Structures are given as structure tokens and as C-alpha cells.
Amino acid sequence: MNLPYFISKRIAKNDTGSFSTVINKIGIVSIAVALTALICSFMILRGFENTIKQKIYSFSGHLVVSKYTLSTSYEQTSIIASDSLKEQLLSLPGIDYIQTYAYKAGLLKTDEEVQGIILKGIDNQFDTTSFSKHMIAGGFPQFPEEGYGTEVAISSKIANYLRLGVGDDVMVLFYQTPPRFRKLKITGIYETGLEDFDTKVILGDINLVRRLNDWGENTVGGIEIFLDDPNKMDDAETLVFENTDTDLYVDKVSDKYMQIFDWLRLLDRNVIIFFTIILVVASFNMVSILLILIMERTQMIGVLKSLGASNGLIRRIFFFNGFNLILKGLFWGNLISLAFCWLQMQYQLIPLDPENYYMNHVPILFDFTAVVWINAFIVLITAMALFIPLGVISRIKPIKAIRFD
């Protein structure tokens, strides 16, 4: 029989109704609160990152191949998306699929308002499956095999500002010499929550852009590349750059929308700081609680020493006592945090302002591997902290301890 463990269990059982019971509960609650805060903050952060990144990726891909130019205008220098170029890109390892696009600036005009817009021309290869989650009304535009389509999808911001809805016709003036007008039909309304897209981009037929610019059949503004693993974006960028012409520019979407990705990296840094503070507080609480338990059991320590118990045996008794509190705290912390995250994911209990956070509710991304690591890290740090107050035991003298009141 493990004597220190047996005595520790007897102490915990006999502490019912004593001051130690209150202290034990405080210890359990402190660990549970710390773990709940860490797991929830981690899953929320991962949810934020995943949701925002998926919105950007569904709209722009992971890499963009375009003509090398110093101009920052939406009026692009065209490239030829030949079959050989497409096949070459698709043959590269890590490339999932590609789609072509072209931008055209214009003015969207109604009887009462005018709004500057960017028409993003796409074709039937556009990944409507990933983008469909952003459609809030109507359907995605359908493009004919020949000629060009006049159906478009606009953002909810543009629709609300111009008082437009699904099925409405709208006149668009495109900037060029001479200016050209086109009457377009709204078939759908989308909402990404990302201001860069929602305030100016409408989706339409790439053949319409070709017609306006007098481009040929394979002429496009650029090629969007989607990867099997977004975490390998840097390697994929180098690979694509090495296998394309020197006059083509390969841009990572993380560089294209640098301000958003910098904001996400700032969130990562804040969570690390928060994680450290929580661990320090939880460890300090466990040190204080175990020290109080030792002081309350001073007479018992004196009796055990007078019976021949070593300092090491007594330390193990109180270590098991403290470790038992940690395990109970972990149980309740995991239960509360996972239950909260599941409820938030299912019912969106906590709303957000999409104007500031790019989404209308707090997102959750379950990562059970991370949960295991967080639990292990808390156990390791707090268990190590338990050794700090155990040094007091060696200072307790049996004679003084037995008479201690």
C-alpha cells in the first residue's frame, strides 16, 4: 500500500465541514476557472483565425498570379491564361485547384444614389461551394457558355445603401474611353463581414470584363491558386514563382491583406500573454492553498515525525493532497469549458458587431489536441509549484508542532 497516498485520502475524507474544506474548494475553483479561461480563449482565437482566413481564401485563394506591375490600380494589366500555364500550375505539388479572374472598376447607379464598385469577373470554375456560405439571399450568378452573362451578386452593404434586392436591374457605368454602360441583374446578395470586399466588390461574368476591355478568350487579370495546406503558403509561393515566367508576379493573400493577418498575429501574442498570466495566478493560488493546508495540519505533521515519518513521506502526503485538488479542478474546468464552447457553436449565444469583428457571433473551433496540451501544461506547471510550500515541512520541529495551537 502507498502510505502517503492512503494518508492523503484519509485527510481529504475527514476534512468535511472544516476550514480545510473551504480552502480545498477554493483550490478546485481556481484551477477550474484557469482551465476554462484558457480553453475558451484558445478555441475562440482559433475560431476567429479560421473564420476570417476562410472568408479571405474563399474570395481570393491562397496565392495570386498576375502581371508584374508597379500600379496599384484595380485596372489590371492582363495575362494569357493558356492551357499550358494552367496545366503547369496544377501539376505542382500542393496545388489543389485554380480559377481565373479579372477586375473592372465602375459606378453602380440607381435613381437616388451612386456607388463606386469593382466588378470581379469570374467563370464557371469559381468555387461556389466554399463561397455559398456567404450568400444570404438569392443565388449565385449563372454564366452562359457563349457570349457574356449580365447576372451579378452584390454585397449586403451595397444592397442596403442603394436599396436594391434580388431580382432588381441596375445600371453600371464602367470607367474607360469612351465610358460604357451595362444593365445588370442582381441574382444574389452576399455578406462576408470583411469591409474590403463588402463595400465595393460585386461578382459577375469574366466574359463581360473581356468584352469591355476587348480581351481575347484566354485573357484574364490573374489566376487564383488554392492550396491543399494553407500552412505551406510560403513554400508554395516559391514553387509557383520558380515555375512561371519572369514577368508574372506571385502574391500571397497574407501579404495582399496584410492588415488583417497582422491583426490576427496580434491576437496570438495577446493570448500568449493571457496564458502566462493565468498560469502564474493559478500556480500562486495552489502555493498559497497548500501552505495553508500545511499550517493547519502542523500538529499532524509533528505526530507523524514523532512516529518516525521522514520529511519526504510527509511531503508526498501533501503533494498528493494538492495534486488531487488539481485533478478535480481539471475535471470541472474541462466540463465547463467544453460545454460552453459546444453551446456557443450550436446556438451562437454571444453575438458580435460584424462592423468591428468581421462576423456576427463569437466563433468556436474545436481542437482536442490543443485541449490535451493545455491540460498537460497546467498539470505540469501547477504540480511543480506544489514543491515550493513543501519545503516548510522540513522546518517543523515535532515538539513545537505537537504543542502548536
Please supply descriptive tags for the structure shown above.
405 residues; two-stranded antiparallel sheet; 53% helix; 19% strand; elongated
How are the SSEs ordered, and which strands pair?
Layout: H1 3-14, H2 19-60, E1 63-67, E2 79-80, H3 83-90, E3 95-109, E4 114-122, H4 128-131, E5 135-138, E6 151-155, H5 156-162, E7 169-174, E8 180-190, H6 195-198, E9 201-205, H7 206-213, E10 219-220, E11 222-227, H8 233-242, E12 248-252, H9 253-256, H10 258-296, H11 298-306, H12 311-347, H13 354-357, H14 368-390, H15 398-402
Parallel strand pairs: 4-9, 6-8
Antiparallel strand pairs: 1-11, 1-12, 2-10, 3-4, 3-7, 3-11, 5-8, 7-8
The SSE string, one letter per element, is HHEEHEEHEEHEEHEHEEHEHHHHHHH
Distance between the termini: 32 Å
Number of E-type strands: 12
Please, how many helices? 15
Number of domains: 2
Structural class: alpha+beta
What is the beta-strand fraction? 15-25%
Helical proportion, percent range: 40-55%
Characterize the overall form: elongated
Evaluate the radius of gyration: 31 Å
Described by strand count, sense and barrel closure, the largest sheet is: 10 strands, mixed
**Residue-averaged pLDDT, rounded?**
88
- Low-confidence regions: none
